[in-house]
Structures are given as C-alpha cells and as structure tokens.
Amino acid sequence: MSDNNNQPNHLNQQWRLVKRPQGLFQLSDFEFREEPLADLADGQILVKINYLSLDPTQRVWAQSDSYLPAVELGSVMRSLGMGEVIASQNPKFNPGDIVQGMTGWQSHLITDGKGFAKVPRLPGVPLAAFLGPLGMTGMTAYVGLLDIGKPKEGETVVVSGAAGAVGSMVCQIAKLKGCHVVGIAGSDEKCAWLKSLGVDGAINYKSENLYKSLKRNCPKGIDIYFENVGGKMLDAVLGQINVGARIPLCGYISQYTNPDPSQGIQNLSVLISKRAKIEGFLVLDHMQRATQIVTELATWAMSGKLKYQLDIVKGLKEAPIAVNKLFEGSNEGKLIIEV
Ligand code: NDP
Fold first, then answer.
1. d(CA 228, CA 202)
2. Which residue from 204, 226, 228 has its CB within 8 A of the most atoms of ligand 1, so it is best to mutate?
C-alpha cells in the first residue's frame, strides 16, 4: 500500500456531458474541465487512466434512461476504461496494478475500487485488448452467439455489423464452431478483412442488394442471425430464416442516432411460421462468468484462432468526436481512446 495519498501535481482532465445529443454527438454536448485531485481517503485508490472504451451504447446513455439511468447533465461522461493504480490506501490494490471498470471520460479517477477488476499482463497481448476483444466486446459475442444462438456444426450464421468489434468476434467464434458464416459490413475493405478472417461470405450492404446477396450466400437459409444493426437489415434477414432460427438481439445501432426511430419491422410475423425466436441480452448480466469466458477468448487469441483490430485514437480531447466513428462506420475494429 502506498503512503503517497496526496497528489498535488495531478490535475484531473474531464469531459462532462452538458447537453442531450441530437443525431451524432457534437463537441458542444460536452464541456472540458481541469480540476485538482482530492487527497485519498482510507480505502481509496488513485487510477491514472490509460485507455477508454468508446461504445455505441454511450449514445444511448447520453440520451435517456435505458438499462442504466441516463448520464446526468453536468457529470463526467460514463465510459468503461482501464488504467494504472498510482496511489493506494486500499489493501486490495497496489501501485502498478492495472485495473478496469467504469472510469468515465477523464484522465484520473479516485475510487474505492468496487466494480474494478485487475487486468492480467499476457505476453504478446496489448493491454488495450482487454477493453475489447478480450473484454466486454468479446464477451458480448461469446454470450450472444453461444448462449442464445446455440450454433450447431453446419448451420448458417449471418452477422450484421460483422467487421466491428463484436461482429468480428462473432464471425470467428461461429467459424470455430464449424458454421457457414456470412458477414454484412459497410465497405469492400471491411468485407475483404472479413474474408481474411475465414468467413464464407461477406456482403457490402451499401453497394449490394442485401436480399439477393443473402440468397446467394446462404443457399440453405439462415439458422442464426446475430443482430447488431436492426431496422431494415432485420427485415431483409427475417425473410430468409429457417424453421427454428435463433436471433440474438445484441444491438440496434442503425437507430441510436435516428431522431425518429418509428419505422417498424414488416416481417415480424415470420417468427410464427418459422417457430423462430428473437432474444435480447446484455453482457452486463454475465459478468460473473468473465474469468471463464476471457480465459477462453485469450486462449483462442494467443493460439492465432481469434484475430482482432484495435482502432486507437490518441488523446482524451478527441473522445467526443472520435465516438462518432461508430455511427459513421469509419472505425476499424474496437474503438479506443488512448488518454
Ligand atoms: P462496432 O465496432 O461494430 O462499430 C459500429 C459499426 O456499426 C460501424 O463501424 C458500422 O459498420 C455499423 N453501423 C453504424 N451505423 C450503422 C447503420 N446505420 N447501419 C448499418 N450499420 C451501421 O461497435 P461494437 O462492436 O462496439 O457494437 C456493435 C453492436 O453491439 C452495437 O449495436 C452495440 O450497441 C452492441 N453491443 C451490445 C452489447 C450488449 O450487451 N447487448 C454490448 C456491446 C455492444 P459498417 O461500416 O459495417 O456500417
């Protein structure tokens, strides 16, 4: 335990949410502040934050109450992050420990450590990977595909947002389970990357007729549709599902910045004739299995069976604009801020 509980030289830099966003995030939705850090009380740790995870759900958190209450106006923008303990008055943490948890968009955090987990150092694995492919996003893919999708060898799995952080993990885990995998993504470059990961088909939904391309790539119909996007894409896929199909409903990113998300799904009644099921889930409900799942993901990654891209943007100041890459489709893999 460190006795250095005074950090007079540290200024905490923060982004606070001051306005509910309309459409994409604007810089004016946030305020940048610098504040001196308080002294550590008994039981507290001081974390110097190194990485912040940028996630589509932050747009939901900034807007309104959902599975978590909306971020209060005037408070630090909510975010998963990772950093190094630089002072500790808590016997469970030592200076030098790398920890992960809800840090918010800021450079430093004083916390009692509840809800924070230590991050292992593995040879050849960048620490930032534990914020994405070997962390929350990898777990999301694992739980949604394996627990809800329940893939069987030879089945056809279609994945939307397939070249993204979650989607690219889903595609590869489905291949490891012996499935015929078709990814849907927004550019030829993303489709080429998906092919390099071993998917059987990749569809550029911006330049191809989605319905026809699905027909061509899924000659035996669709058994599992891992949904990251929603809206029209869900309708196109529903028209081609098989009897007994499973649809893990992971995300609905096409509607997060839509001011009028009123368009309904036309093909929902197909679920009746196909005796199919659609099921939403939250990775947060599965954190008690984190060690088991992350160990499995890391084992696959270290043996080269699971590949990932980290899209690291440098500088805390970039966070409010960089987060929009998720909604514009310009992120290449897991989007992270290096503080
Ligand atoms: P990604 O890395 O997949 O980035 C988002 C991608 O979504 C973009 O690159 C873009 O790819 C695609 N996209 C954005 N807008 C649209 C649109 N209007 N239509 C079609 N595609 C679009 O992000 P994540 O992997 O972090 O998240 C993927 C999904 O998973 C999100 O919906 C997110 O909310 C959800 N999620 C759910 C969790 C849960 O517990 N249920 C946990 C974590 C994430 P492209 O270029 O292909 O269009």
1. 16
2. 228
